[in-house]
Design goal:
The chain is mostly helical and about 170 residues long. It has helices at about 5-80, 90-165. About 90% of the residues lie in helices and about 0% in strands. Helix 1 runs antiparallel to helix 2 (about 90-165). The N and C termini lie close together (about 10 Å).
Length: about 170
């Protein structure tokens, strides 16, 4: 076998190695995208759990605020009644109404803040899920690009080997 033939065989082998490398790299890029998606999906699930926990804690804080309000109103009524004050009109009624109003505002403020915090966590979870889908798609695009680039290089190498082989003197 002449040195020229050996050279052409090596060129052909290099083309095959280029394809194998491209396939391996493409698989790795696709897998990296899938792993990134899995990591972001896990973070999204954690954010969703945090949103649910926030809602439970907020509901508990709201219940505590309302219980405190009921106790305060009962205490005010008891003190007014003990003093013999008529609660059906005038300043005592206004005071009870004001206390009830302030207590309700506190409870509703807790509810609103809880909802805003939970909604923010859920929005973050949605963004993480979207980011995961994008990471997976980007991995596929990179893999496809690598594969096409590798096939192009291999085709060039194969053509060079073919051209050299077909132009070599035959014995």
């Amino acid at each position: 076998m002449s040195l020229a033939v050996v050279g052409y065989v090596f060129e052909a082998a290099a083309a095959v190695a280029t394809v194998a490398t491209a396939v391996s790299s493409a698989k790795a890029q696709k897998k990296a995208g899938e792993e990134r998606q899995a990591a972001l999906d896990m973070q999204a699930a954690i954010s969703e759990k945090q949103a649910k926990q926030t809602e439970r804690q907020g509901a508990s804080r709201e219940d505590i605020a309302r219980t405190r309000l009921r106790r305060l109103l009962a205490s005010q009524r008891a003190l007014y009644a003990k003093a013999g004050v008529d609660l059906s009109s005038g300043s005592p009624l206004t005071m009870l109404a004001s206390t009830a109003s302030e207590g309700e505002i506190e409870a509703l403020t807790i509810r609103k803040a809880t909802k805003e915090q939970a909604d923010s966590l859920r929005e973050g979870a949605g963004l993480l899920t979207f980011g995961g889908a994008q990471a997976k798609a980007a991995g596929k695009v990179r893999a496809t690009g690598t594969l096409l680039s590798g096939l192009g290089s291999a085709a060039g190498q194969g053509y060079s080997a073919y051209k050299g082989w077909s132009n070599s003197p035959k014995k």
